[in-house]
Specification:
This protein is α+β, with helices and mostly antiparallel strands. The longest helix is centred in the middle third of the chain and has 27 residues, at 318-344. The structure holds protoporphyrin IX containing FE (HEM). It comes from Phaeodactylum tricornutum (strain CCAP 1055/1).
Amino acid sequence: MRSSDYSRAPRWESFVVLAWATASAVLVGNVFQQALPQPVQAFGPALVPHLSRRCDLIQRRVSSDLEDVDVDVDNDAILGSNNIPRRLRIQGRGIPTRKDPIQPLDSMTYESDLIKTWEQDPSRQKGFDWEIEKLRRYFAGLRMRDDGVWVRQPSFFDFLVSKSRSDPGNAPRPVGLVDVVKLVLTNSLTSVGLGPALGMAAVPNAVIQKYEGSFFSFIKGVLGGDLQTLAGGPLFLLLNKYFEVYGPIFNLSFGPKSFLVVSDPVMARHVLRETSPDQYCKGMLAEILDPIMGKGLIPADPATWKVRRRAIVPSFHKRWLNRMITLFAERAEILADDLQPKSAKGQVVDMEERFCSVTLDIIGKAVFNYDFGSVTDESPIIKAVYRVLREAEHRSSSFIPYWNLPYADQWMGGQVEFRKDMTMLDDILADLINKAVSTRREASIEELEKRENEDDPSLLRFLVGMRGEDLSSMVLRDDLMTMLIAGHETTAAMLTWTLFELSRGDPGLLKEVQAEVRTVLKGKERPDYDDIVAMKKLRYSLIEALRLYPEPPLLIRRARTEDNLPAGSSDLKSGVKVLRGTDMFISTWNLHRSPDLWENPEVFDPTRWDRPFNNAGIPGWSGYNPDKVSGLYPSENAADFAFLPFGGGQRKCVGDQFAMMEATVTMALMIKKYDFDFAIPAEDVGMKTGATIHTMNGLMMRARQVNENEPVQSAEGYWEMQHLKRGLNANGRPYTTEEEAVWQTSERLSHKKEEEKPNGEGGCPMHKM
Ligand code: HEM
């Protein structure tokens, strides 16, 4: 066909040729985009210059036809470039819900960058390239909303949009099929003894192959994808058994799939702190949590995480945290009041459920100023939240992604319900976000920190007010949903296990913690920050519960680059080569209960946090040093990564201070007003796991109201005695001089004898009996 024939060509033909030309151009651009420098990427469509004259001619005709498409929009309200024609505009503003077919463009993608590149320099919005770009956007369903936000509607030409993440610097690419194939091959060769030839370390292999349950339960486990059933119980307990057999690093294999299980502080420090967050991502955790948390901070890929972490951290500022203390106290008081009639009647209360309710109410108010009212009420929304949480937990302990089966949300009972629950929660969230956006007052971070926001001190209000914050995309919704989930059951579990351990342990310890609480809060209506600091024995009890019951008991990572783990306490002196794509579990459960890292690791002993601990047998580990405790709890740094209550490194929990304050205030108000007795034997409480560790049968207790102004019948001396009997001074440190040792020991012990004398003045009545 001669070029002059085009003037006579039928219109549909020119349309097809144009679409083909545009598609090939953009496809070429998209395929090679990662390999090309940014300016070249931005001109993807122009990568086929020989087509330009033809396309120009056809395009002029087609685009003039398209101008006639009538889209009713308020042109005055449109922000940004005036060069965007009406056909590329669409009505609407605000944040849609997940189920809406029209979604804002993900601001972290290459596509978004490409649009920004065009917008940054309006002088470039002319000529052939610009016309092609406009057409590409039209066919790809890209539209600009009234508020200037680019959205995407479903389109047959969806492939014209590049969804890949933009590359911040030299970030490694996500793991792909080739990496997985290479990994499986290497694993297979290593398992037949060829590992050393491939440079792989001789990491022991733990193969789950002996199933001890019934055939029926096995089939049920396989069909339901339930890893716990197949592992014969909570996975972290199985990993603990293997830890005892194979040591601090081993491979856990299920057929061709394997996980590297790390239980060594030096290796954990390397992965969490000494590598960049680009090097290890959340891997399968991100895949599992995607339908619930989307690109929220916990599962976020490294590129999204960098941007969102920077936005979220300032919202947890000191003034806000102080303000939250009042919220914690208000909500704990509601819980205490609710316990009163049950206490009077001697009724049994499931304290685990009560702690879940109070933490849900707190996080709802703190994150988006929403009152779930779950301590006193039951509602379909609360039930939906719990069902979603259970589903998230089930997914995170499954190895078959049953939720991805075709149309699973149409025919699988649990998935149908899950879809409905998510829709309900999404609608509520979208409504809250849109309300906050519509009353937005933009300001700098410093200004926002000073702002009072009496009626609504929520994180949502802060984030929406942040100048320059991208409010268009789903990431805000994803982050809020993530914090709702992350900040709720974790704190509830910490409270549950603290009450459990304090109640079943030495009564002297509980009495001492209660005495501290009642002394610090004496005559005060509500605790403040200084009181939280002063209640050290309580804080250390809470953190000790997190040592024994870490939430979550496993941290999940996937290597995005090849790496070499240090040897740590293993025998693999050259370290361990980690291939790109390797899935890894860092077992916090094993770290926290390792006899090499703790004295009497299985014992609940909050006093341990006063005493240093070291083990020269672990090269590169500097032990636990109480002098390094600087905040509200002994952190991962004080224990050199043997203790990871809130993770470590750059992806450490953003809510650690919030959680510690919340738990201290809630527990303080509980044990100030009540004594608790087990309603079932402590050993029947049991343990099961999902993302967090729950009790098997609830924490069934009876609360006895006490006179909070009466001093606790003292067990004074329990805490100090734990140090003294180990030959340390009253603060848990070694004596500096011999004189001090002699003086302190005789002084303390004679004081103790005085207390123990029958009818001795000031003696402990408990010991008088
Ligand atoms: C006792 C309570 C809590 C515990 C034990 C806990 C534990 C953790 C742990 C271990 C991580 C690191 C996960 C990893 O490295 O894979 C984490 C991350 C996170 N937590 Fe918490 N958390 C608690 C409370 C909270 C609260 C109250 C919030 C929010 C209000 C919160 C929000 C987050 C977020 C957003 C992350 C992801 C941080 C990032 O990747 O940058 N957490 N948490």
